């Protein structure tokens, strides 16, 4: 908090009951973000040592599952904290009770303390995830996948912060973090018990609903809300980016990211479905082989003798008597 107050540019606004201090972004935010990157690295190490490492010792996971378990454990703690924090900011600032505030009086250059602090902490966390790839000794095969979603978070959060779309960005982040929280919780339970896949079904429902809400809200705010704002001039010095080209670019970026996430989601579900079918067919083959083996063992037991040099002998080793044929 001290770092934020020192490195931020302040703006004082007055209300009937007193004064409130508002903030806007600037180059001094880089110092604040750097400070909270070190805080995030320390918190990451605390969660890893006092929680995740102790659980890993009990589970005895393989190296691949060990790495993914640590990743999901860290993200569960982060997403849970961010969901609670983001929901508190949205409710206290009145963005849910007054949806028109998402686009009214744009540009939202001056931010309340808790909104600015939230965005700076979010940027610091996702920037700290880059050196953590080295500290956690992540496998080379996993690095491109993690770099993808880290870059997407940084682009969207920084874009909402710099383009003065912080109010819309808060709600979109809340929807995204709720879906991600369910996914990583489901993955943690799956690593402890591979037969436990029910939470993945719950995550699938939450994921699809969050994508629908994200697209609907983005179109409502960007295509309809900002288009009706009186100030339509493109003036970056005043923080106003409300032009037709700007709205089309932001909306296309949101739609592209949501389409990419849905494609990854469908690919993941198809892979799960194929694995489930292969597992079921393997179980059926194993069950059929077991039944066939039991039937063969029963037929062998029913035979009273055995063959030796082409002659059927009884169990005591003597050959059975041959029946005499009566002459007609």
Characterization of this structure:
This protein is mainly alpha-helical. The chain is built from 8 helices and 4 strands. Strand 1 and strand 2 form a beta hairpin. The N and C termini lie far apart (119 Å). The N terminus and C terminus are likely disordered.
List the helices and strands and how they pair.
Elements: H1 2-7, E1 9-15, E2 18-24, H2 29-59, H3 63-93, H4 113-135, H5 143-162, H6 166-192, H7 198-225, H8 244-302, E3 306-308, E4 311-313
Antiparallel strand pairs: 1-2, 3-4
Helix pairs in contact: 2-3, 2-4, 3-4, 3-6, 4-5, 5-6, 6-7, 7-8
Structural class determined from secondary elements: mainly alpha
Query: Major sheet, described briefly?
Result: 2 strands, antiparallel
Strand order of the largest sheet: 1-2
What's the pLDDT, averaged over the residues?
A: 85
Helix coverage percent: 55-70%
List the helices and strands in order.
HEEHHHHHHHEE
- Rounded to an integer in angstroms, the radius of gyration calculated over CA atoms is 32 Å
Low-confidence stretches: 1-7, 12-16, 323-328
Counting DSSP H or I runs of 4 or more residues, the number of helices is 8
Q: Give the DSSP E fraction (strand runs of 2 or more residues).
A: 5-15%
Taking the alpha carbons of the first and last residues, their distance comes to 119 Å
Q: Compute the number of strand runs.
A: 4
Assign an overall shape: elongated
């Amino acid at each position: 908090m001290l770092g934020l107050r020192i490195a931020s540019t302040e703006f004082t606004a007055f209300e009937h009951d007193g004064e409130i201090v508002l903030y806007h972004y600037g180059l001094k935010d880089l110092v604040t973000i750097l400070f909270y990157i070190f805080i995030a690295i320390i918190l990451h190490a605390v969660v890893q040592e006092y929680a995740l490492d102790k659980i890993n010792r009990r589970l005895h996971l393989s190296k691949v599952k060990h790495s993914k378990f640590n990743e999901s454990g860290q993200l569960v703690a982060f997403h849970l904290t961010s969901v609670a924090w983001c929901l508190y900011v949205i409710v206290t600032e009145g963005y849910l009770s007054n949806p028109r505030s998402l686009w009214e009086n744009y540009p939202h250059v001056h931010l309340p303390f808790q909104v600015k602090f939230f965005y700076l902490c979010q940027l610091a966390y996702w920037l700290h995830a880059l050196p953590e790839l080295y500290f956690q000794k992540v496998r080379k095969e996993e690095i491109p996948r993690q770099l993808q979603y880290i870059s997407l978070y940084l682009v969207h959060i920084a874009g909402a912060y710099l383009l003065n779309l912080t109010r819309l960005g808060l709600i979109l982040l809340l929807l995204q973090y709720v879906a991600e929280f369910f996914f990583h919780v489901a993955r943690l339970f799956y690593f402890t018990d591979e037969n436990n896949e029910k939470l993945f079904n719950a995550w699938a429902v939450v994921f699809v609903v969050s994508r629908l809400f994200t697209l609907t809200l983005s179109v409502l705010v960007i295509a309809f809300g900002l288009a009706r704002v009186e100030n339509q001039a493109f003036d970056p010095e005043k923080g106003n980016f409300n032009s037709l080209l700007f709205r089309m670019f932001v909306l296309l970026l949101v739609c592209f990211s949501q389409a990419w996430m849905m494609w990854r989601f469908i690919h993941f579900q198809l892979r799960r479905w194929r694995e489930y079918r292969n597992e079921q067919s393997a179980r059926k083959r194993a069950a059929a082989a077991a039944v066939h083996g039991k039937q063969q063992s029963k037929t062998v037991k029913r035979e009273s003798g055995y063959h030796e040099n082409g002659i059927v002998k009884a169990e005591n080793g003597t050959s059975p008597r041959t029946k005499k044929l009566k002459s007609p």
